[in-house]
Amino acid sequence: MDETRPASSPKPSTPTALAPPPSARGLPGWALAAAYLALALLPLLLAALAPDGPGNAWREAATGLGMAGLAMLALQFASSGRFPTLSGRVGIDRTMAFHKVAARILALFVIAHPFLYAVPGFLRSPSRGWMTLEIYFTSAQYRLGLVAWLAAIAVVGLAVLRPRLPVSYEAWRASHVILGLAAVGFGAAHAIEVGGYAQDVAALAGFWLVAAAGAAASVVLVYVFRTWAIRSDPWRLVRNERVGRGLWRLAFRRESGKPFPFRAGQFVWLTTAPRLFPLFDHPFSIASSPRESEVALVIKEAGDYTGRIGELAPGTRAGLDGPHGAFAREDREADAILLIAGGAGIAPILGLARDLDLADDLRPIRVLVAAGGPDRLVGLDTLREIAARRDLTVTTLCEEGGPGYEGALGRLDRGTLDDLLAGLDPARALAMICGPGPFMVAAADGLLACGLPFDNVLYERFDYADGTLSRHDRAERLRVRLIGAALAAGVLVFALR
Fold it and tell me: Of the ranges 183-197, 430-444, 449-463, which one carries the lowest mean pLDDT score?
């Protein structure tokens, strides 16, 4: 393994005469939102067809929350399953972010479900209310429901607490799948066994069977079919080079020699021998162009798996699941392109720069590479090589200097972005950003303030629940909350019908 290569000199693979990268496929965002609402509220609609009509509003609300929560639990398997039909157009970052926020909403629905049944009793007397709760939590009749209730709370709670849990990512991921399946399976059995509406409306019982089967099928697709796929279509690590402090560039080649169609800026889930199984894969952005013969990744040492990434030897067998993501430049009208990278976020930026070069794109390109220090700047030789034949300018920004470093010092601010845009029309520029969350927020909001169109500022973010949010993030979170509000409104209508 070569560890002596200069930090800024990743070796590009040989360009090949590949077909143009594929276009994005999948449903538009509005169609996904409409389908999600329809499926989550479908059991309530089916229950409303029951011949006996509604009962007490509190009990109907409890039933509605339980049914909507169970349907949302089943849909969680689809929103996290890496299905191109669902995430190919909007981006898997948005479907995964929705998955996380939806989990919190369904947890509230599930937690409230048994307690609302007791409200009529509490309104009469506290003893009657506590007696009702005791029945629901201790009676053998509701045991399946209790298991589902506890599993649903556990799967969401452990996901929220995952960064603070003293377990490996792989162990948590396995428990996440098992608990999720238990919540859906036992929940469906509970709804069919004791749910009055499921007993009166055959279509509703069928819905729960299909929902449980769909959740199980998604697990089979991810963990059985994809295991077969990565083992029957193996890759080999051909180079593993240290390109910066704690940063490695890995180049892979498909053993079959078949092209790997992807769009510059996308990412793959990587797993390596001896654990060629999707449970052990991790997502990494592609640092090469689809017009090259190898797929390159730039990986930072930062976890259980990546902490030893430099130890992978050339010849190691690997599995690549992908491509995924909508971080691509097509279908965007622009006269100039800004590529902005922070730290390990240089990976897709390098891929985009290489692809613009190989595609003979004549538009001016401005690249900003930011890092904590000069020893973490990656890809500068590649970018400068492109700059020798293209209208491409490279700017570096480090928080700390070092011997021989002549670039800018400090953090990303409005002045840095103004300098980057010098001579360009912001209204006709396209910006693509990758890096840590706060870095992307600063870059995105700063570029909007500089005059870039909202839709021409692109980046991927997988969690909108915590941390500093940009204007893009707040808009996305608002859309998710509107879906949650629509679900709550549907339950209210069901309860008061």
Answer: 449-463
Count of H-run helices and E-run strands, the chain = 16, 12
Tens digits of per-residue pLDDT, 73-82? 999 998 876 7
Output phi, psi for 205, to 5 deg: -60, -40
Report the distance separating Cα 250 and Cα 237, nearest Å.
7
Transcribe 268-308 into DSSP letters: EEEEETT--SGGG-EEEEB-S-TTBSSEEEEEE--STTGGG
Degrees (nearest 5) of the Cα angle 215, 216, 217?
A: 90
Nearest to 99 by CA among 469, 475, 464, 482: 464
pLDDT band at 1 (very low <50, low <70, confident <90, very high): very low
Helix axes 143-161, 92-117, angle to 10 degrees: 140
- The rounded Cα 482 to chain-centroid distance in angstroms is 20
Looking from the CA of 100 toward its CB, the CA atoms found within 13 Å total: 18
Residue 127 tokens read as: 């003893």
What string of H, E and C letters represents the secondary structure of 186-199? HHHHHHHHHCHHHH
Three-class SS state of 321 = strand
Q: Can you tell me whether residue 156 is helix, strand or coil?
A: helix
Nearest-Å Rg of the Cα atoms of the chain is 26
Residue 23 pLDDT class (50, 70, 90 cuts)? low
- What integer is the mean pLDDT of 401-428? 92
What are the tokens at 309?
């990434």
CB of 397 closer than 8 Å to CB of 407:
yes
Residue whose C-alpha is closest to residue 43's, from 190, 189, 194, 203: 203
- Beta-bridge mates of residue 241: 249
Distances (CA, A) of 433 to 104, 152, 207, 292, 486: 28, 36, 42, 22, 32
Region of 82 (left: φ > 0; alpha: ψ -120 to 50; beta: rest) is left
Half-sphere CA count of 417, side-chain side, radius 13 A: 25
> Which two three-digit tokens encode residue 497?
């019908």
Neighbours of 333 (CB within 10 A): 9
